[in-house]
Amino acid sequence: MPDAPTHLLERVISQRVTLVLKDSRRLSGRLLGVDEHMNVVLDEAEESTAEVTRHLGRVVLRGSNVVVLNAPQGATGKSA
What we know:
There is one protein chain. The chain has about 80 residues and is mainly β. The protein has one domain (about 5-70): SH3 type barrels (Roll). The protein is built from one helix and five strands, in the order αβββββ. It has a five-stranded antiparallel beta sheet. A hairpin with a 4-residue loop joins strand 1 (about 15-20) and strand 2 (about 25-35).
């Protein structure tokens, strides 16, 4: 049976991830945590739009606003 999305994300805790939100904003930061609703906590977060990039610090994002979560390549692959 495939891993649940939250279990896959637990493998990249403390690593830098990039999120795309419903309103097309991009946030990147170090993943501190995730829950069963896919709510995420990012540290050292930065928000990027077409016009500006700004430092946000620590943020909590509601999972329903996240469209894409990019993790480091190979971080979610299955280990032997």
